[in-house]
Every structure is written in structure tokens, then in C-alpha cells.
Amino acid sequence: MRAIIDKLYKDQFLQEHELTDLLYGLKPEEESYLFAKAQEIRTKHYGKKVYMRGLIEFTNYCKRDCQYCGIRASNKKADRYRLSIDQVLDACVEGERLGYQTYVLQGGEDEYFTDSRLVELIEAIKKKFPKAAITLSVGEKPYESYLKYFEAGADRYLLRHETASEELYNRLHPRMSFLHRKECLNNLKRIGYQVGAGFMVGLPGQKVEDYVRDLIYLKELEPHMVGIGPFIPHKDTPLGGETGGTLEQTLILLAIIRLLLPKVLLPATTALGTINPFGREKGLQAGANVVMPNLTPMQVREKYSLYDGKICTGDEAAECRRCIEQRINKAGFELDMGRGDHKEWRGRDVY
Ligand code: SAH
Question: How much distance in Å is there from the Cα of 69 to the middle of ligand 1?
């Protein structure tokens, strides 16, 4: 197995059958070798730096019905909210005070936020914080809408592909298609966004072969960022009684992604921190280099409930910032409050 890991380290590529062998055959004692190799590559490109993004969850209304997600349209128990432009700006002001230079605006697919309202929101943030990077994460939209947001000043877009296994994708996403998800990701790249894809680990019925498809898809797409985290059941969804993903499997996949895409921006996600008290630290030690502390106003924080047990819903933004800094330092890394663009990013004007 070490030979396969060495090959991945050297070539930044593995054949389908090699990835399958690696995922099936990796023994616990070989895991630390994989993590060490991933660390080495991450250190080579980004040193010990961990980039911080301020996450603002600005609406939990959603027209979609993803089977795993707590804010799906059919969940009548979800207590819905949306922030006003002023509330989002206030969250950014607090973010700036704490040193953030990048804001991630995430939400459900909320029809209240038409293109013109989103453009207004992006322009308002850019006007007040011209140097900050804005990341959007609001789901599938037509090409023209993505273009409008980009022209208004959005710099990055997170749209996890969720799973590259078409059959599994279609089962989990009623009235959606994997083909369209891929088309959206291609459009975002073409427009010139720094793009984030990614998937969940431990979905009901997800197998090694499905992860292999995820890895191959990511290698083909070459996104700037990859967000992966364990699936965690939410009690008020059809998958509420299922078992969630594990720390071990997620860490292995993080490390493989670091080796496949050496310069990728790779978050240690909140979901990883939720299934294990040191999940995010372990994620960093397996090759991750980004964290996304929460800047969502306290009064609504708990309502952005994608899965049960989500951490950090009770802490003020300042407390989150302090806590994560201590954790990062203790784990042997350094905070970087810069914009944290991808290493090969040449700026938005070249497009
Ligand atoms: N509407 C946006 C944002 C989705 S929420 C979009 O479509 O991109 C952000 C991410 O949370 C999703 O992409 C999904 O991967 C993750 N997520 C949702 N429900 C989850 C669950 N039960 N467990 C773990 N992750 C979940």
C-alpha cells in the first residue's frame, strides 16, 4: 500500500483501480503514512498557515428537498429566517473587527433572494469592504445569474457536487440531476470564480466505488477549493434514522484529496468538528488548511440546522474566533487572516 501512496505523492494521480485498492486496503498503520505525506505537500505549498473565512448563514429558506438536509423545503419543523442586508453588513462589520478579510454567504435556495436582491447585497458588502473577498454558496442558478453576481463583485462560489455517483445523487436529490450540478460547476469556472466543489462522506448506501468517482471527478474538475465532511443525520429528514459518516473515513479522503490536488484550499469543516471534539484539528493534520468560523448573528444561528448536534451555535463570533485560534495553535498551525486566494489565482481581471 505504501507503494500506491508514494505513487500518488509523486504523480498527483492514480488510476481508478489504484484508488479503489487504496480505499479498500489501507490498514490503520498505513494511515499515518498517508497523513504524513499529505502534511508534507500541504506544508510545501502553504506552510503551517490556516486560512480563516467568516461564515454568514443568511437564509434557511430553501426550495429544494435534499433528503439529508435539515432545511429542506418539506421540513415543516424548520424555523425559517432570512437576514436583511443591514444584518449581513453588521455581521461583516463584526468580522472586520475580528480581522476577517473573506466572507462566505451561504444559504438555502431562497426565492426571495432574486438576482437583483443578491446583486444589491454583494454590491453593498463590496462598497463597505472593498478589499474583502466574497464567497457565495446559494446553490444552482442559471449561467446569467452567476455572471451577474460575479460582475457585482462575488469572487468565489461554493457548490459541493455532494456525490459524483449519479444513481446516489439522483436518489438523494428529488427533481435535481447530477448532470445539471456539473454544468453549474463548469459555468462557475468559466466565468472566472474561484470554485469549490466537494462531497459528503458516509451517505446511506455510499460505497468505496462512489468515493473513487468523487476523487476522479475532483481531479478532472480541478476546483480551487474542496469541501468535504461526514454526513450527519438530521432527525426531521427522511434520513434521520440512518448512520452518519466517520472521522476516519473523512480524514483518509481529505489526505487523498490533498495529494491529488496539492494546492487546493481544503477546509476542516464544522461537520468534522461535530462528530469528534478534535475533528477539525485532525483534519488539519491530514492535509486541510482552511477553517470557516461562524459569523451568523446569534439570534438565528441555531436555526441554520443542516444536521443534528452542530457545534458553535452558542458562541459569539468573537468567542468562535478565539477558540479556533487556540485550537489551531495547539495543533501546531498558524492563523492566517489574509484573503487566502488559491496559489495559482491570477486575479479576477484576467477573465
Ligand atoms: N444551498 C447551498 C448550500 C447548501 S448547505 C448549496 O446547494 O450549495 C452546505 C452543505 O452542507 C451542503 O452542500 C451539504 O454538503 C452539507 N450538508 C447538508 N446537510 C447535511 C447533513 N445532514 N450532514 C452533513 N452535511 C450536510
Answer: 6
pTM over 0.90: yes
* DSSP-derived 3-state class of residue 197: strand
Rounded Cα distance between 292 and 268, Å, is 8
Residue-range definition of the domain harbouring residue 279:
2-336
* pLDDT for residue 108: 98
Question: Looking at the 3D structure of the chain, how many domains does it have?
Answer: 1
Q: Report which of residues 316 and 115 the model is more confident about.
A: 115
Q: Is the CB of 137 under 6 A from ligand 1?
A: yes
The mean pLDDT of 158-170, rounded to a whole number, is 97
User: Which atom of ligand 1 lies nearest, measured to the CA of 140?
Assistant: 7
Our answer on whether the CB atom of 232 is closer than 6 Å to any ligand 1 atom is: yes
Q: What is the pLDDT of residues 204-237, one digit of tens each?
A: 999 999 999 999 999 999 999 999 999 999 999 9
What CATH code is carried by the domain that includes residue 321?
3.20.20.70
Name which of 98, 79, 49, 42 is nearest 293 in CA terms: 98
> Strand 225-226 to strand 200-201: parallel, antiparallel, or no bridges (unpaired)?
unpaired
Q: Ligand 1: which of 65, 160, 276 to mutate, judged by most atoms within 8 Å of the beta carbon?
A: 160
| Dihedral angle of Cα 242, 78, 82, 111, to the nearest 10 degrees | 80
Amino acid at 84: S
User: How high is the pLDDT of residue 350?
Assistant: 67
Beta strands 102-107 and 334-336 are unpaired
Contact 175, 144 (CB under 8 A): no
Which residue has cell 505523492? 9
Helix (H, G, I), strand (E, B) or coil at 265: strand
Domain membership of residue 258 (yes or no) is yes
Residue 348 forms part of a structural domain: no
State pLDDT tens for residues 87-108: 999 999 999 999 999 999 999 9
Residue 306 CA to ligand 1 center (angstroms) comes to: 7
